[in-house]
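Chapter review. Work through the record for uracil phosphoribosyltransferase before attempting the end-of-chapter questions.
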Amino acid sequence: MVIEEGPPPQKRMNNTAVAELLQAGEMAAASKDGSGEACAHQRVGTQKKKVLSTNKKEAKSQLNYAIPIANLLLAWGWEDRKSSDAWRAALILVSGVVLPPIRRVSFPLLLTTSITLLSFLLLNPAPPLPLRRRMGFVTVNSHMATEEKSVSGDRMLVFVPPHPLIKHWISVLRNEQTPCPIFRNAMAELGRLLMYEASRDWLPTVTGEIQSPMAIASVEFIDPREPIAIVPILRAGLALAEHASSILPATKTYHLGVSRNEETLLPTIYLNKLPEKFPEGSRVFVVDPMLATGGTIVAALDLLKERGIDNKQMKVISAVAAPPALQKLSEKFPGLHVYTGIIDPTVNEKGFIIPGLGDAGDRSYGT
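Structure tokens for uracil phosphoribosyltransferase:
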């Protein structure tokens, strides 16, 4: 029985096969006449063109999906300020996915691509940092105050705790239909949560042992000999600081009245119940619901510094903050910590935060 087999399936040649074919062509040329040499070189040239065409298609296919992914990685790195990680990931992607097909096409092309990539990295350093970091303060979207240790120590830190209850009470305060009693209660609840977050790892404590119903237990208490000073800026600060005593076991409250000229937006102090000098090591919560232009809060902190309070001994509690106030604070009080429910983008010509929540004092007390 004779089985007739068809021609073997044609296989795509790689670089090794091309080299072997070239060598065979040279050997054939040495033993054949000029016409045979021409035919051999023609066959080799045809096969080589097919290989180059195939590899170019592969390279183009790789580039079509590799470059958008690399761009996405770089965008992610710039946005989240992890540029070094993004550059590293992009380089790995380009080196592992883009360069191999180029290498198979042509070594000169590989060399050119590598030099171009290196030049791009040298001439295009990591992009400028976001505005809020360049302004001198850092926004920390975390409720864990222990994360302060991982951030630079001499810049002002702005904490925006991501607690859903904080977002809830901010939403209640924003609603123009919220009646006065509910508005004031929402302000008090928001202040309670913000002071709870701000007091992490900051309160003075004492340790000891007590007898529980079952055995001796090691315990830790808030030290009542070092009360936290609460300085609400009237009027709206009273509502935000209303529940301070329910959060902090030992407090002293010092009222500070500051009004703002509606035309010049400059602050005027009309009531000052601060002591002449605070005890050494005192900790102070300055409570001002609206950090808009920054005039009021800067005036209040200046009074505290005149009475012996360092930037790191006071924390600002606010419902809503805006960039103009935060910029002033970061310039004058490096190392200060600000806790706010939300940061709004801008302030209008009348000094009100947009979108904000209106006049906090008027809405809290109806006058």
